[in-house]
Amino acid sequence: MSVSVPAARSPAGTVDDPASAAMRILVAGVGYDHLRDMSAGPILVQELRGVRWPPGVDVEDLSAGAVHVTHVLQSREPYQGAVLIGAVQRGDPPGTVRVSRFVRGAATPEEVQVRVTEAVTGVVSLDTLLTVLDHFGALPDDVRVIEVEPRDTAWGDELSPLVRHALADATVAVRSAVAELGR
After folding, report:
1. Which portions of the chain are predicted below pLDDT 50?
2. How far apart, in Å, are the Cα atoms of 152 and each of 50, 98, 157?
3. How many whole angstroms separate alpha carbon 124 and alpha carbon 37?
4. Which one, of 32, 64, 61, 26, lies nearest residue 174 by Cα?
5. Are 90 and 62 in contact (CB under 8 A)?
6. For residues 182 and 23, is the Cβ–Cβ distance under 8 A?
C-alpha cells in the first residue's frame, strides 16, 4: 500500500507548467497489492503511468489508509477533477466496468462513521476512500469513479483473465473521463 508523494507528473507536465496550474486532474488507483483482482486499481495505475497525459494530470496509487490519503491531498494545491479506479464487488458479471460520477454528500452519517472506522482500521477500498475524502473535504467538485467487478479475490499477483481484459475498457474510460474533465 502506497501513496506517491510528491505526485507523479506526466512526461509533458511539470510543476512550473502554466497549463498545469490551470487544470489539475488526479488519476488514482485504489486497492490491495497481491490480492488478485482486488489489485486492479494499483495495477492499472502502473500501466497508466506509461501513458502521455496532458499537462496537469497526476497519476498515482492511493492504496493507503483513507485518513492518510486525506491528509496528503489536503496538503496539496487542490485538484479541479479526479478519476478514481478500483475493483469493487457489486454483484455484476466479473470484468464489468462501471463508470459514474461521484455524488458528494450522499453518505448518511452512519455510513460515514462505518467508513471512517474502516479507514482507521486499515481497510483499503474505493468506497471507503471516497466517503472519507468527501467527508473531510479532500475531493474536487468533479469526481469520476471507474469500478471493475472482480472475479478472484484470493491472495496472488495475477489478475483473472476477465479482469485483465477489462483493464483495456477501464483505460478507455479513464482517458474519456480525463478528456471530459479537461474541457
Report:
1. 1-21
2. 26, 18, 11
3. 14
4. 26
5. no
6. yes
- Report whether 39 contacts 126 (CB < 8 A): no
CA–CA gap between residue 93 and residue 151 (Å, rounded): 8
Task: Provide the 8-state DSSP code for 10.
Answer: P
Question: DSSP state, 75?
Answer: T
- pLDDT at 54 (0 to 100): 94
Q: Where are the alpha helices (DSSP H) in 23-155?
A: 40-48, 66-74, 109-121, 126-135
- Give the pLDDT of residue 65: 87
To 10 degrees, the CA torsion angle through 42, 43, 46, 50? -140
pLDDT at 122: 87
Q: Residue 22: what pLDDT?
A: 57
Given this model, what pLDDT does residue 126 score? 95
- Give the list of residues 6+ apart from residue 140 with CB closer than 8 angstroms, or none: 26, 78, 79, 80, 81, 82
Domains, the chain, in order of start with CATH, read 18-181 (3.40.50.1450)
Whether the bond into 93 is cis, omega within 30 of 0? no
CA distance 42 to 39: 6
| The one-letter amino acid at 88 | V
